[in-house]
Structure formats: structure tokens, C-alpha cells
Amino acid sequence: MTTAKIIGIDPGHGGKDPGAIGGENIHEADLNWQIALTTIDRLAQAGFVGVLTRGMDEDPPHWVRNNRMETAGARLVISVHCNAVDNPRPHGSMAFYWPGNQRALEIATRILQEFPTPLRPHTSIPWAVVESEPWLGRARGVIAAHSASMVLIECGFVTNPVDLAALTDPLIQAGIADAILAGVSIW
Predict the structure, then answer these.
(1) pTM for this one?
(2) Angle (CA) 119 123 124, round 5°
(3) Parent domain of 128
């Protein structure tokens, strides 16, 4: 098997880092983990090899996650996250990629086009697919320090009640995994 079929899946946060917290103590890390596991299954069904950057209860630093992907031979990595802000109104998904990486832009765009309806990017936001500089801050390390193409997906806002309900729904999580597979499939 060639390394072109090995896809890294990075479930953001984990371990002692719960990520954003929404609703009744729903941790972003747990949502990311569930979406990542479903994505790994979908990738396997389509003939890809999915490799996780972390275990369920660990939060390795970016360099460890990146080393795991390098060692596995991943040429594409999708980092799965959920968004949060102090205002409950923002909603929908977003994607980030490294500036100048046209292939990552195409993959990010395809993923968002296929996202489940309740979490599709808000139509009034022209920047649902964003080059990472300067938007990512700390998360920049996830997509910058790797030789593979990388896309970071913010699946929805845990601080928005409608998005949160969708993010906790296993059918919507499966829809997110299917959207990720659609993006990976153009690789």
C-alpha cells in the first residue's frame, strides 16, 4: 500500500485538556474523539488507512502528534475540532489550511460542502475556509509543523445550542465523517 492512502486523523485536545465546554459539561475533546473514531471507520470502508494522533485519554503535544503522522507515513492529516465563543449566536463549521496549499484548500472546501445541513457554514460568513495565518493562534502548530497537507475542521460551536445538539447526535457525527471522507477522496 502506498502512503498516499494513509490519512492522519487528529482528534483535538484530550486527556487533561477538555477543549471547549458546552451545555451540560460536554467536552469538545470527547466530541472530537467520537467524530474521529467514526471517520476512521468510514476511511477503512473506503480503502484508506486512518491513523489517530492520540489515544482516548491523552493530549500529546503537537510535535508528538506530528511525529506519529510522519512515522505512519500520512500524507494528509485532518484535525477535528469544535469551536466556541462567549456568544451563543455564532454557528456552523469552518476549515483552516496552511497558506498556499492549494490541495488542502480543495479538500477543506469539499469537506464543508458535504457537511450535514445543521452544521454547514453560515452563508453570510465569506471566510468559512480560511488560510491559517493569522487566525489559528495556538492551533497553528497542528497544521504548520508537518510535511503532510493538513486541514483543521471546526465542526460547529459547542456554545451554540443548535450546533451542540447536532454535534452530540451520532447520525450527525456520521455525516461529519462522511464529509471528511468526501474531502479525503479527492486527494
Answers:
(1) 0.91
(2) 125
(3) 3-185
Strands (E), the chain: 6-11, 21-22, 26-27, 49-52, 76-83, 94-97, 129-131, 149-157
Please state the domain count of the chain. Answer: 1
Distance CA 154, CA 93 (A): 5
| Tens-place pLDDT, residues 81-108 | 999 999 999 999 998 887 788 898 899 9
d(CA 41, CA 184) in angstroms, rounded, equals 13
Tell me the three state secondary structure of residue 23. coil
Q: Considering only CA atoms, which of 65, 122, 116 is closest in space to residue 91?
A: 122
Residue range 61-83, pLDDT digits in tens: 888 988 899 999 998 999 999 99
CATH number of the domain at 180, please: 3.40.630.40
pLDDT of residue 126: 46
Amino acid occupying residue 44: A
CA R_g for the chain: 15
> From residue 55, how far is each of 9, 19, 30, 60, 128 by CA, in Å?
11, 15, 11, 9, 29
